[in-house]
Design brief:
single chain, 628 residues, mainly alpha, two-stranded antiparallel sheet, 15 helices, 4 strands, elongated
Length: 628
Amino acid sequence: MGQMENRPVSNTSENGRTVESLLQIVTQDLRRLHEGLVTQLSEEVNQLQAEKAYLTEEVKQLKAQHQTLQTQRTAALSQQQIAQQQLWAKQLAMALANHLQSLMVQQMNQMAKANSIAGMGSGLPGSSQLQSDNAQRMLASLDATFSATFRSLQQELNSYHSALSQQLGRMHNLEQQGEAVLQALVSKLQEQLQAESFGSTTALQSPVSGSAYSYSTGEDEASLSETVLQPHARPGVSPPDLSSSPSLSAQAGQTHPVYSPQAPHSHPPQSASSPVISTPIPAPGVPQPLTRLFPKKETNFWAGFILVLFSTVALSIHNVVVRVIGKPSSILGLPEIGGFINITVLGNSLLILWLRMLVVLPLMVAVSMVLYPPVWRDLSQFLAARDRRPLLNVVGSGFFLFLSQVLIYIAIGQIGAGPAVTILFMYPLVTVPLAWILFGDRPTPLRWAVMAIISLGVVFTALPSIDVNKVTSGGEMGVTAAIAAGIAFALYLIFMQLGFKKLHPVPVSLIQFFTIFVLSSIILIFLGPNLGVLVQPEKRVGFIVSGIILGALTLIGYLANNFGVRFMGAALASIIASIGPVVTALLAWILINNPLQGVQILGIVMVTLGVGLLSVERMKLQMQAAKT
C-alpha cells in the first residue's frame, strides 16, 4: 500500500522535472534565436553602412567627373569659338580684299578712260580742271566705300559679341541647373540611406538617440543632442524635449538627428499617426555608436551610472567654486580663501566667464578632433552653406547661453549656489509653452502638474531671499538674475532645437564656445571699465587659478557625461542628471558650510522631483515608440 501511495508523488516530481527541462530548452532556443536575430541585423547594419560609404564615394567620383567634363567642355567651347572667330576674320578679310580689288580695278579703268579723253582734248581749255575734279570724286568715292565697309564690319562684330554673350549666359544657367540636379541627387541618396538605417536600427530597438544630460548651471555650452519622441508632434517636425534636465549637453559620437555633411539635410517623411523620431545621418566612413534606452550589460549600466553621477558632481562643484570666487569661504573648516572678485558686478562676472572660456576653448578644440575627426570639414561646409538660418540659430543659441551664464554667476554670488541653480531649473515653465506654440507639442496633464510643482518649488526656494525682514535688496536682485538666467536658458534650448538639425553636436559645441568667448571679449574690451571690472593685484593669482579650475571642471563634466550616456542610455542619464540642484545644495553645505532654510530645502526637492518626473515621462515615451 505504501508503494501505491508514493506513486503520484513520484509522477508529480517527474512531471515537474520534465516541465523544467522543456522550459530550459525553450529558453535556450529563444536565446539562440535572439542572438541570431541580433547578429543578422548587426550584419545588415554594417552592410548598409558599407553601401552608404560606397555610394558616397560614387557621388564624389560623379562630382569629379562632372567637374572634369565641365572643364573640358569649357576648354573645347573656347577653342571652337577662337577657331570660328579666326575663320570669320579670314573670310571677312578675303571678302574685303576682293571688294577693294574690284573697286580699284574699276577706278583704274575709269582713270584710264579719263586720261585718254584728256589726252585727246589736251588742247582744249579747262582739261586740267576736269582731271582734278575727277580725282577728287574718286577719292571721295573710295573714302565712302571704306567707311561703309568698316561700319558693316563693326555691326557684324557687335552681333557676334552679342551672340557669344548669350551663349555664355546659357552655359552658366546650364551649369547652375547641373549643380542643382547633382545636389538633389546627393540629398535623395542621403534620405534613402537615412531611411534604411532608421529601419534597421529600429528593428534592433537600440538607437534611441538622446542627450547627455550633463547638468550644470549652464555647463550646457555643448549642443542639444536629444532625439525627440513626441506622440503629439506634427508630422515631419521634431519638437524638442524641452522638459528634461537643463543641460542637454551634446555628446560627440552619439546618434543625433542632425548631421549630413555633403548636402542639404532633410528628414524622411513620417506618417501623422506615428511618433516623430529624428534619426541620425552619420558621417561617411565614421562609425557612430548606438545610444540605447538601456544598456545591454549590467557592467555598462553601472559604468555609465558612475560617469553620469561623476559629471553631475563635477559640474555642481563648479558652481560651488564660483561661489568661493565671489565670496571668501572656509572649505571643510580650513582657513578662508576666495573672494578674488565681486561676481555680483556684471563686469567681473563677464571676466570670470571669459577666463573660463579661454581655458576650455583650446582644450575643446583638441578633444573635438578625437571625439569627432571630421569636425573641421563639417564646420567649413556649414559656414559656407547658402542657407544662413541654421548658422544664425546656432549663434543665437550661443548668445542666450552666454547670457544665461553671466546671469547665473551673478545669482550665485547673491543668493548662493543651491538656490540659484534650483531657480535656473524653472526653464520648463518657458520651454513647454513655447514647444506647444512652435512645434505643436501639446503638454500632457503630467506636464501641467509638473509645471505647477516647479513653480511652487521656485517660490519656496526664492522666498527667504526676498524676505525684506531678513535679507537686503541684494537677495531680490539675485533671485531676479536667476529667473532671467532660466528664461535665457529656455531660449537657448529653443534656438538649439531650431538649428541643431544640420550639424553634428561637436561642431555645434565649438561654435557656441567661440560665440561666448567672442562676446565676452568684445564687451570687456569696449565696455569693461564702465562695467566695474576690478581684480586686486594681490588676488590675481588666485583668480587665474580659479578660472583654470572652472575650465577643467567644465571639460571633465562634458567628457564624463559623454561616455556615461553611451554606456547607460540617454533616458536613464537624464533622470540621474535631474538631481543637480540637490547635489549642488548638498556640496555647498558640506564644502563651504552654506546652510539652507527648511522652506528652501522643500523647494529644491520639489523642483528636482518635477524635473525628474519629466525625464521619466520622456523615457516612457521612448520605450513606447521603440516597441511600436
